[in-house]
Specification:
The complex is a heterodimer of chains A (272) and B (750). Chain A is an alpha+beta fold. In chain A, 35% of the residues lie in helices and 24% in strands. In chain A, the strands form 4 sheets. A 5-stranded antiparallel beta sheet of chain A has the order 4-5-10-6-7. In chain A, strands 11-12-13-14 form a 4-stranded antiparallel beta sheet, with helices on both faces. The radius of gyration of chain A is 18 Å and the shape is globular. Chain B has 18 helices and 28 strands. In chain B, helix 9 packs across helix 10 and helix 16 crosses helix 17. Chain B is globular, with a radius of gyration of 27 Å. The chains are: A alpha+beta (272), B alpha+beta (750). Chains A and B meet through helix 12 of A and helix 3 and helix 18 of B.
Chain lengths: 272, 750
């Protein structure tokens, strides 16, 4: 469990982090909470030449209201988000999901930006971001750009961020008063989801039903047409391509997506 | 007042939970100054011929002191002969994780980089990745032996089930699990100027480890000292010493420097031995009134790549009929080799497998004849008046009250109300099904017939130092032994020190496994204390000028006095020991007449199964575990809690899996589903104490008992939950996918 030798640079501001990324390009990886990256490095599945540690960056821990959006700093940790009053009121799905990621240790170290930029299809936050219709703010040497969540996730562990960009903020349209629901199916509480479903209003995000988090579009369209929860949930797995693994077959995941979508939609209906 | 039987905080715990224990990796011994660090390069392939080995590049890597492969090792082969594991893989690798090379470097961080530079060419051979593949025999692990079957015992009587109204047969998988102790394996070795090796080893028994290490190195036992610092769990997988320990001792001699080694967590999951791994076919026959007339158990033990513990299937045979008086019982076993990690004892070691088989069989039989599983058990129990009871497979049970244990847990659990609730849910079509699982069990502890050492010294200041050949590593035995001695000698616990695990201090001993420590190690120190008391009586008689038989030890005050005449003077232990001089008040015994004992109990598990997803939640676990008189209820309950959790985990979650090519698919803790507190309910413990007559203390072992009962109780509960939907059996672990698939198949069949 010893990683390949690597360089280590600390960044204490966004500008410093961007300068380091520009300097090292593809060879660098950002280190935030480290709970996804460090295990991969210890297993020697990842071997970045340089880690740029952005944990000391102080400017990206905020949660604040900006017009119609809730704006979350990418370095906000799950534990802080789970109890954040602003988030609980205006983006309750995200606050809830932040409270069920991993375990206590993970939630005290892991960051929302880290989870989203890591883009593990089995992670909880990316699907919740998708269901929240969030916009991701990336900054590079050239300036800032805004990426809709739907365009952000390109594949397993692959996003539209360039190697020289830093995810700085997550902008979530206020979901104040919207119904929401979240279902995470695991063997043990600390496991990654076999399948998960995040619902906010009429949007349904699916965890681990493909190479990226996906929206259950067919189910959403059915809801928009006025279908019942049961009818819509039956369509939850349409268009998905979930992985086939010994402990969870493709067929089983499709089934779970339908059952869990029904439950999340029912919770959502009850939470309004 | 006796402190035995009262709840005493463990003397071990203050350090363990404040500053922490001192494990092998923590040692800062002078003798280890300048140690090199070791890492084993392990086979990434299950079965292959090694066609070339090139370590030249690795030798040039920063900090590398040496790289050794099989060709370098000039030790005689291990004791297991042609099917024994070589010190390092020699020509052929037989499982993923088998040690192939040893790398020594100045700094541990240099090891993994250097190991990547070792160039080994493997020519893959067909892997034997399952019991079925081993029995098919198309590929042999050891072609010279002509078979993958390494041991075959017993045969069956064709007529055994003649006259039975009902006969059922079912193959039950008792899956392979990983011990995964919190402290992984580790060792540190240093040879002194006189050619004597000290090896600090994370083991369950220093003395047996000494025999193994000395034997492997080809030196006398007096040339090896084994020391066990704190040990963070073993569960049977740290009995003795693994081949790595011998190789490390050899390497330290070769490079003339101390050597330190700690494996990684992932390495531990595939390279430490695994447990269970049996495939058992039960046949049960009887009458529709619930009487079982004949039971047959056909055991196939997966021994892994190198057979190490061939007594495991034998113990399973011995305990085949469990708590029941069946007229006919027959058991046979085969042990096969496969291209998987070797199998060794794991909490229960052969007995849980027997219990799982018979307890599933009883439920299958009950379901077939339409009788409540509790009632079927009542009909067939060995009755209290039948003890000592000799089973058809040759075990002689000492004492037991099997029906009593069952009735107590059924009452504590509210069995009838639970059955009523289950019926209501079934009638109402509730998608969350309720399941009740019963397991009644008997097991064998201290079954190795090896005895144990015990020594008690009264020091000149009146304090006590006790030495035990037992080797506690989490059980709390230091506390239990101090309690026994305090009660016997009248000396407070804080004046009693228990020492173990250093072969220079305790040259003779067997160690801690098989739930043997209190009944054998406890009896030994108790016997030593009695001898010290006898010796003291003689000395006090001289001092007080009284007849020895007129003297008594006042255990309230820790002083000797004349019986009935305390005013005529008393002698404290300190006075006596001070006068007698060091070494006089000392006794060193071997308690060797301890026949095995047979703890027993009953467990009731309550589960909920979400029939839409297949997910099982363990809601309640009610357990009676009777191991005779309890010395320390705190430690006793702790052993039960751990056992219940570990046993339930096998039923629900844990399995060490391999793909058809012999690649482990659960090789990290992200994939291997170790149980956590979140998945477990508060345990409901029912107390019962039935003493044995087979040792001085009347005690039986508790270390494994709860593990043995809880696995089939939880397993039976899951099957019971979905029985009304047409499922008659599920193999363990009862994962959501497996339950969902079984429900889908049952729906199709209907």
């Amino acid at each position: 469990m010893i990683p390949v030798q690597f360089g280590y640079r600390r960044a204490s501001s966004v500008d410093e982090a961007l300068a380091l990324l520009a300097e090292h390009g593809d060879d660098a990886k950002l280190l935030a909470g480290g709970h996804s990256l460090l295990p991969l490095m210890k297993l020697r599945l990842a071997a970045p030449e340089v880690l740029v540690d952005i944990a000391p960056v102080e400017e990206l821990h905020h949660v604040r209201i900006d017009g119609e959006d809730v704006v979350i700093g990418a370095l906000a940790r799950y534990h802080d988000l789970q109890g954040d009053e602003v988030l609980r009121e205006h983006a309750p799905l995200l606050a809830h999901v932040a409270g069920v990621v991993g375990d206590q240790q993970v939630r005290h170290r892991g960051t929302i930006g880290g989870s989203i930029a890591h883009a593990d299809p089995a992670a909880d936050l990316p699907a919740a971001i998708l269901a929240s219709d969030a916009v991701l703010v990336a900054r590079g040497q050239e300036g800032e750009r805004r990426i809709p969540a739907a365009d952000f996730f390109l594949g397993p562990f692959t996003t539209s961020l360039t190697p020289e960009e830093l995810l700085t903020e997550i902008r979530v349209p206020r979901q104040t008063g919207l119904g929401w629901g979240f279902e995470k199916f695991t063997r043990r509480a600390i496991d990654w989801a076999i399948v998960g479903v995040a619902v906010s209003g009429k949007r349904v995000g699916l965890i681990n039903m493909g190479g990226t988090p996906v929206r259950a579009s067919a189910a959403e369209e059915a809801l928009a047409r006025g279908a019942s929860v049961a009818e819509a949930a039956e369509l939850a797995a349409e268009g998905t391509s979930p992985p086939d693994e010994p402990h969870a077959t493709t067929e089983y995941r499709r089934h779970l997506a339908r059952v869990l979508t029904a439950r999340a939609l029912e919770t959502s209906a009850g939470s309004r | 007042m006796s402190i035995s039987g009262t709840r005493v905080l463990r003397v071990e715990d203050h350090q363990l939970i404040t500053t922490g224990g001192t494990y092998v990796e923590d040692l800062r011994e002078d003798a280890l100054t300048g140690a090199v660090h070791a890492m084993f390069l392990r086979s990434p392939i299950a079965h292959a011929r090694i066609t070339s080995v090139d370590v030249s590049e690795a030798l040039t890597a920063p900090g590398v002191v040496a790289v050794y492969t099989a060709a370098d090792i000039d030790l005689a082969a291990g004791s297991a002969g042609p099917v024994g594991q070589p010190w390092l893989a020699d020509g052929v690798v037989r499982y993923v994780g088998e040690p192939v090379a040893l790398v020594l470097a100045e700094h541990p961080y240099q090891l993994a980089d250097a190991a990547e530079l070792i160039d080994i060419d493997y020519e893959p051979l067909t892997a034997v990745a399952s019991i079925d593949a081993a029995l098919a025999g198309e590929t042999l692990l050891f072609p010279d032996t002509g078979s993958n079957v390494m041991q075959a015992r017993g045969e069956f009587d064709e007529t055994a089930f003649d006259g039975c109204e009902v006969v059922l047969t079912r193959t039950i998988v008792n899956q392979r699990v990983a011990p995964a102790p919190l402290e992984v394996r580790g060792a540190a070795c240093a040879w002194d100027a006189n050619g004597r090796l000290t090896i600090w080893l994370s083991t369950q028994n220093a003395q047996i480890a000494r025999t193994i290490v000395a034997g492997g190195l080809g030196v006398g036992e007096d040339s090896v000292r084994v020391v066990t610092p704190d040990v963070g769990g073993g569960f049977g997988a740290k009995i003795g010493a693994d081949p790595e320990a011998v190789v490390l001792g050899w390497a330290a001699r070769r490079v003339e420097r101390p050597v330190r080694w700690t494996e990684t967590r992932s390495e531990n999951l595939t390279s430490m031995t695994h447990g269970r791994a049996q495939q058992n076919t039960v046949t049960i026959g009887g009458r529709r009134d619930g009487t079982v007339q004949a039971f047959r158990l056909d055991v196939v033990q997966d021994a892994g790549a190198y057979p190490r513990a061939m007594f495991l299937p034998t113990l399973t045979e011995l305990m085949a009929s469990g708590v029941y008086h069946f007229p006919k019982v027959e058991a046979a076993s085969r042990a096969v080799v496969t291209n998987t990690t070797p199998i060794a004892p794991y909490r229960g070691a052969g007995r849980p497998e027997a219990t799982a088989a018979i307890e599933r069989a009883m439920d299958l039989f009950a379901a077939e004849i339409g009788m409540d599983p509790a009632e079927v058990r009542r009909v067939n129990f060995v009755r209290p008046e039948e003890f000592p009871y000799e089973t058809p497979t040759g075990a002689v049970y000492d004492t037991g009250e099997y029906a009593g244990a069952l009735e107590r847990v059924l009452e504590a659990g509210g069995y009838q109300e639970l059955r009523a609730e289950q019926a209501r849910r079934r009638e109402g079509g509730d998608p969350v099904a309720l399941g009740l699982g019963i397991a009644t069990y008997v097991e064998i502890t201290g079954g190795d017939a090896g005895g144990e050492s015990g020594r008690v010294d009264i020091n000149p200041d009146g304090s006590v130092t006790a030495y035990t050949g037992s080797s506690p590593h989490g059980q709390g035995l230091d506390t239990s032994l101090a309690m026994l001695l305090s009660d016997r000698l009248g000396i407070p616990m804080d004046r009693i020190t228990v020492r173990h695990g250093d072969t220079d201090e305790v040259p003779k001993g067997i160690g801690t496994f098989g739930s043997r420590s209190l009944q054998l190690g406890g009896s030994a120190v108790r016997q030593a204390a009695d001898q010290v008391i006898d010796r003291a009586r003689e000395l006090v008689a001289d001092l007080l000028e009284a007849a020895p038989q007129d003297l008594e030890l006042n255990v309230e005050h820790g002083a000797w006095q004349v019986r009935g005449a305390p005013s005529s003077g008393s002698v404290t232990w300190a006075q006596l020991a001070g006068q007698a001089g060091a070494g006089t008040l000392s006794a060193d015994v071997w308690f060797g007449d301890g026949a095995p004992t047979f703890p027993f109990g009953a467990h009731l598990a309550v589960v909920e199964v979400d029939t839409l997803t297949g997910k099982v939640e363990l809601r309640r676990l009610i357990a009676a575990d009777d191991a005779g008189p309890v010395v320390n209820p705190l430690a006793f309950r702790g052993q039960r809690h751990g056992g219940l959790g570990q046993g339930a985990a096998q039923a629900l979650l844990e399995v060490m899996s391999y793909d058809p090519d012999g690649n482990p698919t659960t090789a990290t803790l992200a994939d291997y589903s170790f149980v956590t507190a979140t998945e477990l309910p508060d345990f409901e413990l029912v107390d019962m104490e039935t003493p044995t007559t087979r040792n001085l203390l009347g005690v039986k072992g508790i270390g494994e008992a709860a593990t043995i009962g809880s696995t089939p109780a939880v397993h039976n509960a899951v099957v019971d939950a979905v029985a009304h939907l047409g499922v008659s059996h599920l193999d363990m672990p009862t994962t959501p996918l497996r339950v969902w698939q079984a429900l889908a198949e049952a729906r199709k069949a209907n």
